[in-house]
Design goal:
4-stranded antiparallel β-sheet; 5 helices
Length: 192
């Protein structure tokens, strides 16, 4: 199995794994150049291709060239980093620390005390996204955000339930869902 970190540095392995993407990008770009060359050659030779066909040929050629170049650049950049590569939550008996370096966003390094938690909201990320805990404390106006797919996320989820801040039965119900729902504890009618 290929780890995401294997794709971040130049290597023969990365080149071989991304070779299909390079080939497709090259075919698109060369196809666009060939289409553009044919169009220009036909016009230069005095051929009549009509305005409609000429514009369609030009648009198709430009799209193919730009698409090929874009795919090639994406292959060079490699896949985007996974949540586990840029998000980490750690904790001890008294504190929780969140460190994140999301792509193209400012770095985050915050902490809060377990004892300051007043409410927890679990938001189901659906099938394609990360599940998120919003941790409300009496020490901050805004909630702290913990992505369960990040490093330490599963352990944090267990500790949160184990310490009584989110009931395990509600957590299991939330984990089984994939509809993007929210689960709140304690319920909004009461506070802890």
């Amino acid at each position: 199995m290929v780890r995401a970190t294997d794709m971040k540095v130049w290597s023969w392995r990365r080149l071989l794994l991304q070779l299909p993407q390079y080939v497709i990008a090259t075919v698109f770009a060369l196809g666009g150049v060939a289409g553009l060359a044919w169009l220009l050659w036909t016009l230069w030779q005095g051929g009549d291709i009509g305005l409609k066909h000429g514009l369609l040929g030009l648009a198709g050629s430009v799209i193919a060239i730009l698409g090929g170049v874009g795919m090639f650049m994406q292959a060079i950049r490699g896949p985007p980093p996974t949540v586990k590569e840029w998000f980490k939550v750690s904790f001890d008996d008294t504190q929780v620390r969140i460190r994140a370096r999301p792509p193209h966003e400012p770095e985050v390094d915050v902490s809060f005390a377990w004892a300051s938690i007043v409410r927890v909201i679990f938001e189901d990320g659906g099938l394609g996204g990360s599940d998120i805990f919003f941790i409300f404390t009496d020490a901050a106006e805004k909630p702290f955000v913990v992505l369960t797919e990040g490093e330490g996320g599963p352990e944090f989820s267990g500790a949160l339930c184990g310490r009584g801040y989110f009931p395990p039965d509600i957590f299991m119900q939330a984990m089984r869902s994939s509809d993007g729902g929210c689960y709140v504890w304690p319920p909004l009618e009461t506070t802890r």
